[in-house]
Design brief:
This protein is of the alpha/beta class. It folds into 2 domains: 162 residues, Cobalt-precorrin-4 Transmethylase, domain 1; 124 residues, Tetrapyrrole methylase, C-terminal domain (Methyltransferase, Cobalt-precorrin-4 Transmethylase, Domain 2, 2-Layer Sandwich). Helices cover 23% and strands 27% of the residues.
Length: 297
């Protein structure tokens, strides 16, 4: 075997998607060296038996919204440390990898974040190619920054593969633009799970010409509405609840800010779901579940 052949290693095809139907054939030129080889993947030189961590955004849910780079990273993985709500079809892109579930759900974490950080460092230090698979994008409410910092502190090679964030994926499916000329030139993302919500400073994040997208806000929808109204936002501001965006059973529920909590409860909205607050919430698909727009005067 020549030196060049030893360096490039055996090749295998990268699975590809066609919308709505996975296709597992790949063009002949779409090959990726196996992970034990020395090559350039994801912008890093990967040396034989040297472990590394790659944070990969799995997107908002639908497997065919994975990026090609995400698929390549999964194919190269020997260990996948994954969140909950990851579609099994996504995990299937790493058929030979050992899987570690670190799902986090409200008030119940399989592992605390510090333990996840330590796990990533430990596995990579043992020579594994670790993919940290996260819903949406690793750097949008994904605590990816903490995991990158832990790797850098331990001198573990680390890279990040961005994903389609839930807000972008769900809004696109709903045909609901988050910005729109003459309606909204600013969009802000906030987390609705913050403790002491009343103490959070959201001033200026919502209002005329602005769109506010609240992640993880279903459980506290009534409190979020009360806070925004107390901060001066009009009670008749349009709201859209995007439930299960890009997943089977996705729906849109529309209401006004003053009635947001009641409608979320009455419609039994469950996570994953996003709250979109602002004039653009009136736009989008016409087959949404439309609720009475009740606003206290």
């Amino acid at each position: 075997m020549t030196e060049g052949a030893a360096r490039s290693g055996p090749l295998r095809p990268i699975p590809t998607f066609t919308l709505g139907k996975p296709a597992f054939a790949a063009p002949k030129e779409s090959f990726l060296p196996l992970p034990h080889c020395t090559t350039h993947v994801l912008g890093m030189e990967l040396v034989a038996r040297k472990g590394r961590v790659v944070l990969v955004g799995a997107g908002p849910g639908a497997p065919d919204l994975l990026t090609l780079r995400a698929v390549r990273a999964l194919e190269a993985a020997t260990v996948v440390v994954h969140d909950g709500l990851i579609d099994p079809a996504v995990l299937d892109f790493a058929p030979a990898a050992r899987r570690i579930d670190v799902a986090k759900r409200r008030a119940r974490h399989t592992l605390p974040q510090d333990a996840i950080n330590a796990l990533l460092v430990r596995e990579a230090s043992a020579g594994e190619t670790v993919v940290r698979l996260k819903g949406g994008d690793p750097f949008v409410f994904g605590r990816g920054g903490e995991e990158v910092a832990a790797c850098l502190s331990a001198n573990v090679p680390v890279a990040v593969v961005p994903g389609v964030s839930a807000a972008l994926g769900a809004a696109a499916e709903a045909l609901l633009p988050l910005t729109y000329r003459d309606l909204a030139s600013t969009v802000s993302f906030v987390a609705g799970t913050c403790q002491a919500l009343s103490e959070q400073n959201w001033a200026g994040l919502a209002g005329v010409g602005r769109t506010l997208v609240v992640y993880m806000g279903v459980t506290n929808a009534a409190g979020i509405a009360d806070k925004l109204i107390a901060d001066g936002l009009s009670p008749d501001t349009a709201c859209a609840v995007l439930e299960r965006g890009t997943l089977p059973g996705a729906r849109i529920v529309r209401t006004l800010l003053a009635d947001l909590g009641r409608v979320v409860a009455a419609e039994a909205v469950v996570s994953p779901a996003l709250l979109v607050i602002g004039t653009v919430a009136e736009l989008g698909r016409g087959d949404a579940v439309l609720k009475d727009l009740v606003c206290a005067s």
